[in-house]
Amino acid sequence: MRKPLHTALNELRQKQKSTFAFNVQNFYQLEACKITAEKLKLPVIIQFSERFLRFLEDKYSVKFIMENYKSDYTYFHLDHCIDIDFIKFCIEAGFDSVMYDGSAFLIDENIKNSLIVKEHAEKFNCLVEGELGKVSGVEDGFGEEGSSYAEIQEIIRYVEETKIDLMALGIGNAHGFYENLEGIDLSILEEASKKLHPEQLFVLHGGTGLPKEVIKEAISYGVVKINISTQLKKETIDILKEFATNNSLYNEISYHTKMVEGLSNFFEQYLLEYTV
Q: pLDDT > 90: what percent of the chain?
């Protein structure tokens, strides 16, 4: 029986574990996510950037994707988005969670718009993720270079006023590959976990390239959702390159098998390390 996402995440919080949200772009990735989640019987979040979800809606329809890839262990999430109408579309389509990212706006506007999304989402039992502090880097057309750190007083105010389900904080994390980790400040997450309700759920963006010790410490502070995008893109292109190198002619059956098996192994490694 399928658990509500909030229940699945709360259970992870209690065990000091986290699941992963993988930013998918195609059906190979979707299939591999579903296969891995069902094989391990662990919750996996299938996450979409707004740009790619609009593309998939235009070509195939979100309804078709959800009918075929939503399962007892897979959950659907809309990543960074400020288009409230599109967020509402995803909520009404049956997404398990959505992100309104008002981190680039002043706190008052961020709170106001987060409340609009939260009120609508509650009608559909959909969770809402918010963000304070900007995550550096552009990911799938969203964001900008340069980051900012979330401030504890704003975090407390935002969470108290919005009752946000999932809280993403800017702690020096970034989209893409890290040149170094000097800017990562886990003390922000630690302080927030101490000053907010003990059951508050947190999200870590920019999971690609973070070392095991950083991820495990973040989980100890209540992170239950870790986003992986860039590493998935690299893994996908690496599998494609290997196939092209070893084959002189294209064969969809062979390619499909190699891609799905390779991606399934990729997803499984993350889940076995941090979710079991």
A: 89
Higher pLDDT, 146 or 170: 170
What pLDDT, on a 0 to 100 scale, did the predictor assign at position 174? 85
Full DSSP string of the chain: -PPPHHHHHHHHHHHT--EEEEE--SHHHHHHHHHHHHHHT--EEEEE-HHHHHHHHHHT-HHHHHHHH--SSEEEEE-S---HHHHHHHHHHT-SEEE---TTS-HHHHHHHHHHHHHHHHTTT-EEEEEESPPBEEETTEEES---PPPHHHHHHHHHHH--SEEEE-SS-BSS--S-STT--HHHHHHHHHHS-TT-EEEE---TT--HHHHHHHHHTTEEEEEE-HHHHHHHHHHHHHHHHH-SS--HHHHHHHHHHHHHHHHHHHHHHHT-
Phi-psi region of 137 (alpha: psi -120 to 50; beta: other; left: phi over 0): left
The whole-number pLDDT of residue 147 equals: 65
Q: Confirm whether 79 is a catalytic residue.
A: yes
Which residue out of 79, 96, 140, 165 is catalytically annotated? 79
Structure tokens at 174: 């970034």
Per-residue confidence (pLDDT) for residue 137, from 0 to 100:
52
pTM of the model: 0.94
